Amino acid sequence: MIHIDGLWAGYGGLDILRGVDLKVEQGTINCIVGPNGAGKSTVLKTISGILAPRAGSIAVDGVQLGGEPPAAILRAGVVQVPQRHGLFTKLTVRENVLMGAYIIRRRGRKQMDGRYEELAEIFPLLAERPHVLAGSLSGGQRRMVEFARAMMLDPKIVLLDEPTLGLDPISLAIIRDSILVMNGAGTTILMVEQNVRFGLSLAHHATVMSAGSVALAGSAQDIADNPHLMDVFFGAASPRTEPAA
Amino acid sequence: MRVTILRRTLVVAALAVLIAYPIVSNDLYYQNLLILTFMLAIGASGWNIMGGYAGYISLGNSVFIGLGAYTTGILAAKHGVSPFLGCLVGGLVCAIAAALLSLVTRRTRGMYFVIVTFAVLQLLALVTTTWSSLTGGSPGLALPLPTWSLDYQNWPFYYPLLGLLVLTVAVSALVRRSKLGLGLFAIQDDEDKATGLGLRTAVYKMIAFVLGGTFIGIAGGIYAYYVTFLNTGAVFDIVASVLMVLAALLGGRGTVWGPVVGAFILEPLANFTSTGIGGANSGAIRLLIFGGLLLAVVLFLPRGVLPTATSLWQRAMARRSRPSPDEGAGPAQRSSASISVSPRGSDVDGGGRVLEVHDVVKTFGGLHAVDGVDLAVERGSITGLIGPNGSGKTTLFNLIDGTVAARSGHIALGGKRIDRSGRATRAHAGLARTYQLPRLFPSLTVIENIVLPERRLSFTRLWRKRVTSPERQRAIAVLESLGLANFADTSPADLSYGQRKLVELAQALWLDPALIMLDEPAAGISPALSQRLADLIRSLHSQGVGILLVEHDLAFLSSLCQHVYVMANGKIIANGSVAEVSADRAVVDAYLGDDVALAPAEVHA
Amino acid sequence: MTELLQTLIFGALIGGVYALMATGLTLTFGVMKIVNMTQGALLVLSAYLCYSLWVHFGIDPILGAFLITAPMGLLGVALYKLVIERVQRIDHGLTIVATFALAMIAEGLIALAWGPNTRATTPPYFNRSFRIGSLVVPQAQLYACLLAIGVTVVLQLVIKRSWLGYAITAASENPEGARLVGVEPVRVGAWIFAISVASTAFGGAALSFLFQFVPDSQDVWIGLTLSVVILGGLGSLAGAFAAGLLLGVAEAMTTTYVSVRWATAVPTLMILIVLTIRPQGLFTRATRQDLAT
User: Fold this and answer.
1) pLDDT band at C14, cuts 50/70/90?
2) Radius of gyration of chain B from Cα atoms?
3) Could you tell me the domains of chain C?
4) What per-residue confidence (pLDDT) applies to B169?
5) Fewer CB within 10 Å, N or C, chain C?
6) Which chains sit next to A, with 3 or more Cβ pairs under 8 A?
7) Which of B295, B389, B436 to mutate to test the interface with C (most CBs of C within 10 A)?
8) Mapping DSSP to helix (H, G, I), strand (E, B) and coil, where does residue A163 land?
């Protein structure tokens, strides 16, 4: 589904990704974990087109998407939910969710409203408080709205950047359920998570990143049991698959 | 080093030439040009203290030329006061005006400050025109002609202005090198944060504005006598204001010599264009030239000539390498981190409460963000504060440190009420905090960041070096224990996110706080750094610092805290040990819920 | 009593016109936090364009305003693409300096194109009035004020009800979040400047038949429009309208009851008072800014 090959990317004079290889299978939940500054979020930003790759390729279903603008990537069915501040606080819940369909806005109100109703069944908040300003929602509620917005396009793949960041345990449970619901509807999930246990407990496949490249990859279970996992986090020497630049 | 030597040589040579010029040549055209250049250089340097160092852009600084000139003019024309005394009075008037203006605008920031200065200029121009009994109104005000012999030519204007320029630059350099300058640059980066570190930013800004205004005012007085005729259009002139800004931007905003270099480029240009272009369209063409030049500088030389040249020169001379950011895993850094602190008030007898919050209420619109909170932190204890997102924890922090004002309730630090005090006063009383996302000052080095906090306002201290040697020693020791000694003189931008959090903590501790509030210190940092952080918090605890900690990571929290408060919907719903509150039904309902975060890893089909 | 009522009518009508003149600035200030110091020059430019259409082709300035919206909109896009967007990337704080420079350039160009003489358009209604009893309602002011209401309502609908409006709100508040749903902030910025400068055409038309103007009139109008925006509170269109009315009435009162000489000081004085006492503007409420995310 997603094939990433030898991906390099960064800001200014700094390369954050130094040859990342990643494969995501259709219909699975995938989790990238790793210490701070490993480049986890940068991978997502490069896929969603916020950041242009410097080398390497990103393909979704065989179509090359590296370097395309975000709108083109949305059209290819890839939607990202950002780490923080994803919502537009001065728009209402409903307007925020509808913004998810911005690139297909010419298809008309009717289709939008229909899709909104469908999503309201999965995310009750959409039906309960459609005209509330997003700025007045709690952290967990904001995440719900962000998820619903991502689902407006009925995407093939949803990228989640630390969905649990700063959330309390109740919201955590709701987030987990929502991720499972989205995945149950056939959406492929690629998430980045700092909360390793949360991420690995949900995912089928996991990738451990360190210093801009992939250190370990495999089934989530194997990764959780891998004795090297903690070494990566504590900064000890890690078995690293050397990237091909 | 090389740049410094080169610069000194150039400055001395240039000064010698300027001193000698009127003696060796009596070309009045060039003397006039130099006098106007000195004026502009003084104006731009004065502007730069506020605009370049503190980042407060004034488009109205020719107000000071106007005030200085009219004071001198009115004193000379109506009371026969010598212009050399008059211009000093003019400087004094400007100092008072600048002090008043900065008092009135002490909370006006960014573009609003720009607009206010623009409006003040327009208003004063209007007042001088309208108040004709004092100022001569729109026809203008003629000054008595100079009484000295014509043999002296322009010397009585030339040398005082040159002297004033040297003085202005010297003061500007002194400011830049001192604690005052350090504070001004911090204000430019993040004024709120600077206030929270105990800096009386209003005082800093007032000193900066008064210094700049005074020099420009004195120059204005000399100028009045030089032209011997004043009208509002000529002195309260927006173009003159813009030229000051333009000279500073062109030469290099925030540098000592940039404004001077800018003036020496700009004024000759201005002069040649005004004498070179005649006819009906000359005014329009001048506008095009200066507008175009200003735009070109903003677009293509935003840092200015001098900094650009300096960095080119430095790059040509040597390539310095920066230490690369790494999260620090060397063996030396594995030793547990600790910073020595002498918390204020700890010498006071016995325990007692370092922080008491009683029935504090804060509403935003109709929403009760903090709704009658009672909370206490025992002296030298680690107290936790947990609660769902949006429950009001960060707002409570903001109420305690004075970022926002409470609607009602009491807050006491070490037994003294602080809820009506400003943020700086609270910092002086021994309160410090860190933020969820670290807020370091990017234009200060790491070590300057650490020594910036101010435990009390002292006017003599303001003029000391940015980092005195005892401070440097102590700060280096702190950085060593954090494993960051290599970064002392680099920009905080070179640090990783986790390292910035550590530096921000060290910065807060420089206040020797009796209480430090930590807002999610472990969020988003690696386990290795989080371990070092926990060590650090324990070491602070053992030294008697009171700690109030917001954290979502329960494992992290339960390993540290003796006492935990739980907040929900703006209220404290439980408090006690971690075990006690976890067993509390209300807490479970409101907060813990189905505790997935701590559940062991599950396997998926 | 009649004098007071008459003063209020004059003040309110001219106040509506002030709001109209400030509309463009309100938009850029409100959604992009850009103080566009060229507003005065753009108003004067529009007034000159209306003047030329009036003198050479006899086109009524209000009709002329509709004709010049398209070129003015394009000018707005050019300003944004060539200058504002670049400067924003270098240092947002310098946009005010850059637009100030642009205003100087614009004034110079206007002076070269139209010369230094005083101009005004004189459509048939420019000195006619309706009379209600002993009260006078000048037609020119009335039409300009109606134009102001029309432009404000249309813009308000665009912002609150259209996809473009949502995109503007989204991109101004959260550029990266906007990009993730396919909104390109740079394109939105160009739209904002297009609308802002195009709407200035109407203010300029009103200026052309209500006041006399010379190239450096822009100084007066930038001061006035700034004070409308500041009084109204950072770019709320409705707030700016209320502020315009207040300012117009205050100025009319000063003229009637104090002295016409001091009336020009009213806007400047208002800027100072508002910015020092209530920096967030008169017609806005403080909002919760510290909500953790």
Assistant:
1) very high
2) 29
3) 2-277 (1.10.3470)
4) 97
5) N
6) B, C
7) B295
8) coil
